[in-house]
Specification:
The structure is a homodimer.
Chain A: E1 4-6, E2 11-14, H1 22-25, E3 32-36, H2 40-43, H3 46-54, E4 59-62, H4 71-84, E5 88-93, H5 95-108, H6 115-119, E6 131-135, E7 147-152, E8 157-162, E9 170-173, H7 183-199, H8 209-231, H9 236-248, H10 263-275, H11 279-293, H12 299-308, H13 317-334, H14 351-360, H15 374-383
Parallel strand pairs in A: 2-9, 3-4, 3-5, 5-6, 6-9
Antiparallel strand pairs in A: 7-8
Cofactor (chains A, B): Fe cation
Protein name (chains A, B): Iron-containing alcohol dehydrogenase
GO cellular component, one term (chains A, B): cytosol
Chain lengths: ~375, ~375
Amino acid sequence: MQNFDFYNPTRICFGEGQIAKLADLVPQDAKVLILLGGSSARRNGTLEEVKQALGERPQFEFDGIEPNPTYETLMKAVAFIKENDVDFLLAVGGGSVIDGTKFVAAAAHYDGEPWEILQTFGAKVMSAMPFGSVLTLPATGSEMNSGSVVTRKSLKAKLPFMSPHVFPQFSVLDPVKTYTLPKRQIANGVVDAFVHTTEQYLTYPVGAMVQDRYAESLLKTLIEVGPKALATPEDYNVRANLMWTATCALNGVIGAGVPHDWATHMIGHELTALHDIDHARTLAIVLPSLLRHTKAEKKAKLLQYAERVWDITEGDDDARIDAAIEKTQAFFESLEIGTHLSDYELDESHLDALVDQLETHGMVALGEHQKIDLDASRAILKGAL
Amino acid sequence: MQNFDFYNPTRICFGEGQIAKLADLVPQDAKVLILLGGSSARRNGTLEEVKQALGERPQFEFDGIEPNPTYETLMKAVAFIKENDVDFLLAVGGGSVIDGTKFVAAAAHYDGEPWEILQTFGAKVMSAMPFGSVLTLPATGSEMNSGSVVTRKSLKAKLPFMSPHVFPQFSVLDPVKTYTLPKRQIANGVVDAFVHTTEQYLTYPVGAMVQDRYAESLLKTLIEVGPKALATPEDYNVRANLMWTATCALNGVIGAGVPHDWATHMIGHELTALHDIDHARTLAIVLPSLLRHTKAEKKAKLLQYAERVWDITEGDDDARIDAAIEKTQAFFESLEIGTHLSDYELDESHLDALVDQLETHGMVALGEHQKIDLDASRAILKGAL
């Protein structure tokens, strides 16, 4: 096992009816800005429930944080906060709203041009405004971690940052709030959580037995609940397990003491930035091809994955690995998520621009061995045509 | 899944050499009291390493916290703290030293007779001194939770308390520090972690898929590393996995959103209080008999346990359950831990006093259904003769 430093102070209030707890979770004297994405929280009553729980506290709303939250939009929230002396932020939405709120929380305290927060991956964040979240979409895990991804539209750049200052103080997770989500978003959430898990699991063995088994627990649960979450949207327990699995996939527990490989995410980010493909779909495109490309390096863990997650025990090493990758890809497709670039009307002519973007963003040595250079990324994208 | 509230702000610094981090973890201007158990930390160099990392900070030492920390001893530490204006506590040792430090931290701030902290199970704790820990014995999980058990010798009472104010700020876990532990303590640690896990898992199903699989992950890991930890004490990875498993067994994660059954612990506590049997050994005595006694209520989870943890798939329900309980008992025995009261020279004549103690401490409705009354506890103890 590798050495690690684990810290996660976010409080989770999980279950039906937990939004009422905001009355105690948010400081009594807070001046609150509620940050929102599209109109769904307004339409389905979640916002009303939140406002009721906040009671007499002064409340403002900031609407329109995009699915891939943009620096341009978020900086408007920062200006609003300064004008109105807001002192507590409450994200109500999915991972994008929470990611956006993290950036706003850090940018409001940042001394300098806040784009630097992303250019330095969060290293220069020294403090942030306090905030909490009400999660409505199980997917990114942002509700219980200190990471965020922000897009700067004008530069077509999508960059991550991390800082211990941007853990949510609390997150409220009510599975009922996911009942009205479109199927497409639920399917995206399943894939997002799945790939978060593989990025921390499908590398090379370091003898981290708990972390490996925990990761396998999450993957098996996603395989079990994913299709049910699409088929029976109002099954509380299915949605509860999906929601908690997605949180656990990126709250630091399975990633402590093991190597990571965020190459699928980094390559995927460029597909979103250039072609506006849903984040999870970019992961479904990249992962199978990446696993085929890195089969040799990842051999031991792929064999473990084949046996423990997919119960594949027949055939030689190569056959078992291939079968596991195929099952992974078929699982994504079963959720009606295309796993080829051609499903999104992209072909070989689009590869150059994608690789150029990777170069621009310094993504030239990805993967757990830093061996995925630009040529390898091109080959992985080509493998996904 | 049941609703839950999860919060665990303890930072974990895990791995060889991490004690050096105390230099940053402890506030620079702190006046530190180091709390110790027996002489092992002094003998094996751990204390020296700790003192070196603390550097120029004013340091005191408080020795002699017992394996079952006593109110009588701990109150001396409280008096010392007040006399010397100590403002930070550092527990160096196993679960008993950390449990004791939690009580000291709460008692030093307590307005009233600190025994009330235990009489009210922590409900009246409104604040506590800040503290951290350096763990030397993997077992109790105290390094990453807010629970503590304290014995009052004069009353032969062993009582637990919990409070969000007594989470360690940090815990340093260096597996190398466990190399010199006696086999007996390692075996105890394996059993302690195992039973912590079953107390949160072997109840009734509530569809908590992640929590169940995580619990099974810990049990399987203990079954795998337990014997190796005894056979090859200096295998870093074995000790690392044992150490992290024991922490994960009681840090709140597997217990979130599921029913609990702490009956084995509560009955076991009386065995320690009256007959001074090691805590883990009392669990090994009580658990198999308790599972046999509650087979009907726990049927569904026992069947899941048989299949997923012990790979038992042959035979009818009863046979599979019996086999799983037998395997559990044999596992404890394989670690040279006696699972019968007779192994500790106790017989039927000792049962009355044990049951009386349970009554005195209000332990009259134990288990996940509060159905283990005094008669049931007597039957469980009798089943363990």
